[in-house]
Amino acid sequence: MSAKLMRLRSNEDQRGALIALEGEPGREIPFNIKRVYYIFNTKPDERRGCHAHRRLQQLLVAVSGRCSVLVDDGVTKEEFRLDDPRLGLYMGPGNWRELYSFTPDCVLLVLASEHYDEDDYIRDYEAFRASAREVSR
Ligand code: TYD
C-alpha cells in the first residue's frame, strides 16, 4: 500500500512549535507541491473523499483537531487517525480514501502534487476495484 504515516520534523522551543514542509522527489515530502487546500467546518457525522486518484500524490495533516482516514488499495484497507499536527499521511496514487470522524475544530491541510483535475478522479468504488486489479496484473 502506498500510504504511510510520517512523523514531521517539528522545531520546538519555549515559544511553541513550527513545522516546515518542503516538497521535491527524493525529499521528505516526495513530490513538488502544486496545490494546497484545507478542509474545515466538517460535521462529525459527514464523510468526505470517497474516491481514488489515478496520478495524484498527497500529504494530509490535521493542523488542528482530529479526523480518521480509511485508505484502501483494492487489496488492503488501513485506518489512520490524524490527531497531531506533527503527523502527515502520505498517499500515493491508486488509493481509495474516505475521511470521517472529524472533530468540530478539525482543519485538514492537504498538499497535492497536481492541480485540480476532475479526470484524475475515480469516484465509483467498483470501477476503482477493477482498475486496482488491472494494475496488480
Ligand atoms: P470534493 O471533491 O467533493 O471534496 P472531498 O474530496 O473532500 O470530498 O470537493 C468539493 C468541491 O470543491 C467540489 O466542487 C470541487 C471543489 N474543489 C476544487 O475546486 N479544487 C480542489 O482542489 C478540490 C480538492 C475541490
Give the biggest sheet: 5 strands, antiparallel
Distance between the termini: 15 Å
Determine the number of helices (DSSP H or I, runs of at least 4 residues). Answer: 1
Q: Choose one word for the global shape.
A: globular
Secondary-structure element pattern, one letter each:
EEEEEEEEEEEEH
SS class = mainly beta
Strand content: over 45%
Task: Please count the beta strands (DSSP E, at least 2 residues each).
Answer: 12
Multimeric state of these chains? single chain
User: Which percent range fits the helix content?
Assistant: under 10%
Brief digest:
By secondary structure, the chain is mainly β.
Describe this protein's structure:
With 137 residues, the chain is mainly β. Helices cover 9% and strands 45% of the residues. The strands form three sheets. A five-stranded antiparallel beta sheet has the order 1-9-6-11-4, with no helix packed on it. It has a five-stranded antiparallel beta sheet with strand order 8-7-10-5-12. A two-stranded antiparallel ribbon has the order 2-3.
